[in-house]
Amino acid sequence: DSGVTQTPKHLITATGQRVTLRCSPRSGDLSVYWYQQSLDQGLQFLIQYYNGEERAKGNILERFSAQQFPDLHSELNLSSLELGDSALYFCASSVEKSFYGYTFGSGTRLTVV
Amino acid sequence: AQTVTQSQPEMSVQEAETVTLSCTYDTSENNYYLFWYKQPPSRQMILVIRQEAYKQQNATENRFSVNFQKAAKSFSLKISDSQLGDTAMYFCAPSSGNTPLVFGKGTRLSVIA
Fold first, then answer.
1. Chain segment A77-97, per-residue pLDDT in tens
2. What residues contact A12, with CB distance under 8 A and at least 6 apart?
3. Which chain A positions have a beta carbon within 8 Å of B101's beta carbon?
């Protein structure tokens, strides 16, 4: 157990639908990062939150949004889902900056049918 | 912006042998950090080793070591005494500390008995 909790582990939904992925960071970590990993691809950075505030944004689609709550858990909302959104979505956390790397959750496998 | 190139999409090695995975990167930062992550078939992202760019000494973690060439912007990973459990995707990732980790496309390593 890495200390970063992601739910659900698996999600199957239809095109056009909306889903919410949840992440609880490791205790003491204030930064949360979301990454997307499509089949046999590298990890693409989506967005970072630090202590409730958006800190950095990557190649995140307008259909996607995220937030970090006062208890530091984070949610990634994906709407108007398309087949191409099928991927493994990772959440990772760190203390503040990435000097020591990140601790990753086990990911949420999203399948859009 | 940081970019990462892992030029070996796939590699294989016999059990107990040594293998080296290559990584080159581009960054405008003077001080930064470099990471190797391992992703076994379970899909969990696991930190293997970390290098601080201002340190000339190469990092080692048990059977894992790096060859860091700052001028050449090269950061290779050497795995000694390869074990079946080393079979995984390996990702190289640089970070300035202030920016999110940027991952390469990965090298798929197979350890053969």
1. 999 999 999 999 999 999 877
2. A111, A113
3. 33, 45, 98, 101-102
